[in-house]
Amino acid sequence: MISPVLFVIAVIGIIIQAFFIAVEHKEKYVPAVVLKGLASLCFVIIGFAGYMSCTGDQAYESFAKKIFIALILGMAGDILLNLRFVFDKIGQKVFLAGIAAFLAGHILYLAALIPQAENLWGCVATGAVIAAALLAYIFLTMEVKPAFKIFGIFYLGAVIIMTAIAGGIVIAKPSVHNIMYAAGAVLFTLSDIVLIFNTFSGTTRFPLRITNLSLYYIGQLLIAFCLFFK
Hints:
The protein is mainly alpha-helical. It has one domain. 83% of the residues lie in helices and 0% in strands.
């Protein structure tokens, strides 16, 4: 059973995320970093509570531990991506460090999902084809620096393959837990796609920034809460 306190924490996190979006838009980058860190801390707390609730089942405890650590890496990525505006001179390096944190988190998400997948290689192949098509479109239509291309290949590949595996698990074993996880993964993937188009298309649009951040945050909350439904 989920404690009502955790739902309150989720609502607080959503409210802080909304304040963060508004403050960042005003280019007040230092308070924005603080707000982003606090918002991310909320889904980390929920993930920790979910991890602590699954004692007694060794296999599921291992799954939940990977998810919890991935959520922490997500918080680190959030902070780093926004620190790039604070430290403008090393902004690109800080941005890439943030992407690396997210990539490490997605590798853990993958490691958590793989033991549950019944058609692993079919899901991997599907995800790889989708990722390759999307990357080809991005590289052909947008001006992307080589460093971002390298990170993009690994990062988007990991995100989309993870989402494909999560979708395959839902098809094979539909449950509240699997559906919540897959929904969170889809929202996470969509948020990254919106972020890429908003960052590299040449015109940054605030409504797309709102969409990117909202999809991402709800996705992380769904992944954190899914731990209570196994």
